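[Q] Does anyone have a clean structure-token version of this?
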Amino acid sequence: MSIRERNNIKKMEHYYSNKPTSEKNEERIETIFNDRKFRFRTSSGVFSKKFIDFGSMLLINTFLDDYDKRDSKILDAGCGYGPIGIVIASFFNSAEVDMLDINERAVELAGTNAMDNKVTNVNIFISDAFESVMESYDAIVTNPPIRAGKKTVFDFFEGAFQRLRHGGVFYCVIQKKQGAESAFRKLKELFGNCEMIARKSGYQILKSQKF
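[A] Here you go.
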């Protein structure tokens, strides 16, 4: 394959592709949450491979501070290589944490990262949004695939509403410049409520509860 052909593949391929075709280029990153160290393997063809993106960091920290139902069932929708779900599962070790992504390479990495961080209370699987989700949840968290477009993001919101149990809560992170206002309106329309519970550096954490 020529350099031009490889560059064309890179331009067409997104982190929300089902089967990345780019050459695997594995890297390792480390981060700390509440004095606990986590290590993650990443690769080309997945979201934010160089470091855990700021939005995910804010979502993790906000969820850990805000959510207090330890013995619960939680879903990380669009888990990538796994930082959100794995960190949550580590601190909520009596919870069952499901993690999904459309990207096969990301799901494989998430499984490896769960083992590397000695997190066992997770179930990781491939799903196009909520297509393969059969369970219901007490909490759903997502850093949605903004680059996939508003329709895909709103599909995540609608899927979350359908799969939340009565009283369940939904958390998402979104940048103000990438549609936070329309996301707020959509969540309020779906759930009848929405609040911004954290905001930093242009990122917002939105929370809705299903009644």
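[Q] Thanks! Anything notable?
[A] The helical segments are 3-12, 54-66, 83-91, 104-116, 150-163, 180-191.
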